[in-house]
Amino acid sequence: MLALSERVSHLAVSATLAVKRKADELRSQGVDLVDFGIGEPDFHTPEHIKQAAYRAIKENFTKYTDAGGTRELRQAVAEKYQRDYGASFDPQCEIMITCGAKQALYNAALALFEPGDEVIVPTPYWVSYPEQIKLAGATVVYLDTREDSEFSLTTKEVERALTPRTKALILNFPNNPSGATLVPGELKRMVELARARHFYVIYDECYEQFIYDGSPLSAASFGKENVILAGSCSKTYAMTGWRIGWAVGPAQILHAMEKIQSQCTSNPTSIAQRAALEALTADQGCVSEMIAEYRHRRDVMVEGLNEISGIRCKLPKGSFFAFPNVAGLFEGPIQNSTDLARHLLEKAGVVTISGVEFGRDGFLRISYATSMDRIEEGLRRLKRLFG
Known about the structure:
Elements: H1 6-9, H2 15-28, E1 34-35, H3 47-58, H4 71-85, E2 95-98, H5 101-112, E3 118-123, H6 128-135, E4 139-144, H7 155-161, E5 166-172, H8 184-197, E6 200-204, E7 227-232, E8 245-248, H9 251-262, H10 270-281, H11 285-306, E9 321-322, H12 337-348, E10 350-351, E11 353-354, E12 364-367, H13 372-386
Helix pairs in contact: 3-10, 4-10, 5-6, 5-9, 11-13
């Protein structure tokens, strides 16, 4: 067989998707699993959003759209940022629709990064950031956040990581996997620092609405000349499989990103765009209901984890993940987070994801995007396993 490309030979498989495949395989064999590894809502897409997709099909809205998405959906995204943050964006040239936020982030990486560039990625990080940066030929600079600061980040920490080669800072708050949030004043100072030191802030706001203490926060509030936003319907509206998101930023960069997308996916699915339009413009009561339920699940999950000797878990302020310190469970054959995650799967039937995959050994990512019954059952299994 002819050799594969050099770039793909160093590319890691998405750890979260790999865990999902393993869990699905075990379920198909009849194994009763409690899945704390899943990174998507357990809620179904709200009915009014599904009905919008049905109408699109019946109306034969099934052709190509503009590469950057329909005019109506771009306008709806612009109105969202104006309504929520008082931020003004031109829907014709400063907004594009993508096949999920992941494509928005990858489009941005290809449009901005090249060999020799450095991109700062705070840890713990979502698994795709380093791989996308490497695919674009740039160098990842990891910046560790601290558990005693609840995995948040300060402008001073960012400033210490800057070099003349810094091209961008990738931020994700509320954070996957830690649930950390960012102080509004710090985000404002980071955007100001980026302007002064000439680098981009790429802000992944997929969990924007998942705030349990305080209000949603967006970098859109603090200027747009060097800020690229990646948003999505996936988590907020339980639409992970619809693959619909957006990018917001300077017109020149968005134009470059749209060129890349036009040669990749042509355009996001027309039907999913109609569903997203309904999601953004209809009453948001369904979102409030889901967030309230996640808050309750968070409280139960964290309280239960902290009752287990060897586990220490901060109360996450956002997303739907807890990121407990599990180093106290390392002994004998369990020497790291990966060993522990495997042990939990094999001995308790509980699916988790090793913190190693997010750049932080000594921790596990535990999702509470599952029913209260399964959360309680999973906690019972963990308590039985560790006494």
